[in-house]
Design goal:
The chain has 427 residues and is of the alpha/beta class. The chain has one domain (9-366). Helices cover 20% and strands 38% of the residues. The chain has 9 helices and 20 strands. Helix 2 packs antiparallel against helix 5, helix 6 (368-375) crosses helix 7 and helix 7 (381-397) runs antiparallel to helix 8. The longest helix is centred in the last third of the chain and has 17 residues, at 381-397. The radius of gyration is 21 Å and the shape is globular.
Length: 427
């Protein structure tokens, strides 16, 4: 894998070197060696061809620092208010005071360091060393993280909050496992401010006939370099409902990989992002249909204003044994300024012959007839545009079952619209 090299790249790599190897010493050491060997991807790497890391590798990121985060800080970050168990990590460190670990029987929500019977050997079984340089970097720093185990039904959503503040680097890690027949909703909120580097990895194992709603919300400040990798493994009869949203980050890259490893699996993958100013937001998804009689439906929508750049690369692989597959992928982008750009690349690779698979991508602006309709009824131009933006993303948010989270996402969308109204009005 080609890597990027600059005059200060050695300083960049040195700043990310683990101060001390965590409890999984052999795997962490192997991961660090793998990261150094691969390096930060260069533009000629097909998976990162639309991203430039030159600004990022010119920086020196300090070690994670302590920050006295408060409940009001969490509210200021616009995090969804939920009633269930909550784990809070600030600059990579578990904040016991802000966390609520109480959960109903059969539900465990704890940091790795406290989780009863947690087997650290599970870590890395899905997001393997050598799979991706950012995964390797996260594993090299692996020490603590968020552990979620559900055996039964979690009545309340489980909230995992990762806050970054300052100009350091942090590497959040998440392990989620649902026992056979279990039901749960897990929200991952990634928020914060500063000029930091955040590199998170989540591993999700859905056992037979289990069902998970997984919502990832990224609202970093527009000076943060944010990378998120999620690996999902589904067993037969399991159901995944994924919603992936991104509003923040100077450069934000999210990878979602789902492997359907049993018959009669169902996977719903929804995503929405809003980039403005000079932001770059990149979404990569990969869906592997490995067994027969599975369904997947994917819908990603992007909004771009200012001089921002959006990227969507969605891949669906239908393996030879995956007969009777039904897979649909749709990607749509809405450009709110003449300077915004989007790069979209839907991909299908089908090795089975009895399947129904479709994909499509559209890029456009606000419809003139819709604007005329609203303006003709006395609605001001700015409000009319806000209504159309809400309607465009509404299809994604409507699939979020938790009402408070759905409302929070709608508020985040409108807040971002208000902050960037001037660049939108320059069309």
């Amino acid at each position: 894998m080609a890597s990027i090299a600059t005059e200060r790249s050695s300083d960049f790599y040195a700043s990310l070197q683990p101060a001390e190897i965590g409890r999984l010493r052999p795997m962490s050491e192997s991961a660090w060696r793998s990261f150094l060997e691969a390096g930060i991807p260069a533009p000629k790497n097909e998976e990162y061809k639309y991203l430039s890391f030159r600004e990022m590798v010119s920086k020196h990121f300090g070690a994670p620092t302590a920050f006295d985060c408060t409940e009001s800080d969490l509210q200021n970050f616009g995090l969804a208010d939920t009633d269930g168990p909550r784990l809070v990590f600030v600059n990579g460190r578990w904040n016991e005071r802000l966390s609520h670990l109480d959960a109903e029987p059969g539900v465990i929500v704890q940091p790795f360091s406290l989780a009863p019977g947690f087997d650290f050997e599970d870590i890395g079984s899905l997001a393997k060393v050598g799979k991706n340089p950012f995964v390797d970097l996260n594993t090299a720093h692996l020490d603590d993280g968020a552990f979620v185990s559900v055996n039964g039904t979690a009545a309340q959503p489980i909230h995992l909050i990762f806050v970054c503040v300052g100009d350091g680097h942090s590497h959040p890690r998440v392990w989620i496992e649902l026992a056979p027949g279990a039901r749960a909703a897990v929200i991952e909120s990634h928020a914060g401010a500063g000029a930091s580097f955040v590199n998170s990895v989540s591993e999700i194992h859905l056992n037979q006939d289990s069902a998970l709603e997984h919502i990832r919300i990224q609202t970093r400040s527009e000076t943060v370099f944010d990378f998120g990798w999620t690996e999902v493994w589904q067993e037969s009869g399991s159901d995944l409902r994924s919603t992936n949203t991104a509003f923040g980050g100077r450069l934000a890259r999210t990878d979602l990989n789902v492997f359907l490893n049993g018959e009669n699996c169902h996977c719903l993958m929804n995503g929405a992002y809003f980039a403005a100013g000079e932001q770059v937001i990149d979404n990569h998804t990969r869906l592997d249909h490995a067994k027969p009689n599975c369904n997947s439906f994917e819908l990603y929508k992007g909004i771009l204003a200012g001089r921002s750049t959006g990227v969507f690369n969605g891949k669906i692989f239908v393996h030879q044994d995956a007969q009777k597959t039904d897979a649909k992928q749709t990607n749509q982008a809405l450009l709110l300024s003449k300077q915004a750009t989007v790069n979209t690349k839907p991909q299908l690779e089908i090795l089975a012959d009895d399947v129904k698979c479709t994909h499509g991508a559209t890029v456009g602006q606000l419809r003139e007839d819709a604007m005329f309709y609203l303006r003709a009824r006395g609605i001001p131009e700015k409000q009319a545009k806000a209504i159309l933006v809400q309607a465009f993303v509404g299809e994604v948010f409507e699939n979020v079952r938790c009402e408070s989270v759905r409302e929070s996402l709608q508020n985040m969308l409108m807040n971002k619209f208000e902050r960037n109204a001037s660049s939108i009005e320059e069309m």
